Amino acid sequence: MSTSDTRRRGRLEEPVTAVYSWRAKPGRIGEFAEWARGVTAEAARFPGNLAATVVHNEDSRDFHVVHQFATRRDLHTWLDSPERQRWLAQARTLAATKTAQQHRTGLETWFHVPSEAAATMKPPPRWKMWLISLVSVYPLVLGFQAWVVPLTASWPLPLRAALFPLVLLTTMTYVVMPAVTRLLRPWL
């Protein structure tokens, strides 16, 4: 679905992040790790896929498979695909259990760190998300304005304007917010 199609429907869809938590069978952790890498690689080939990754601590049997798609429709295209069904059939032989499933949109995805208790946890209050976002984004904006803007002053305005959210949102989503949410998790 194009952006103009979405706008015509009266709202702009937000990206959606789906987290599926699994516990590998004893003695099958290596095989499950291979499975997790394979399923994320498969999901990455689907239209609208923004990211696919695996979160796993070496001393644990728990795996968190994270998929981020541009829209819910894109996510459901992946979820309902025959390719995913084949991967799920294989997972059933390697996993002791599927421990949780979550779908999140908007700022909630920045403040979510998968854990065993995450299935029952609510997102933090909006004021906390706002405050942490503000404090986290300010140094990035300051650095961008100091170092990048002068280098791109001769670029056309649409290109300069596109660079700012691309750099800022990518850095916030994949670098800053995962670290900040881990650090401030007890407060959140």
From TrEMBL:
Keywords: Membrane, Monooxygenase, Oxidoreductase, Transmembrane, Transmembrane helix
GO MF term (any one): monooxygenase activity
Residues annotated as domain ABM: 15-89
Transmembrane segments: 129-149, 161-184
Protein name: Antibiotic biosynthesis monooxygenase
InterPro entries assigned to the protein according to its UniProt record, in alphabetical order: ABM_dom, ABM_predict, Dimeric_a/b-barrel
Lineage summary: Bacteria, Bacillati, Actinomycetota, Actinomycetes, Pseudonocardiales
Keyword Membrane attached: yes
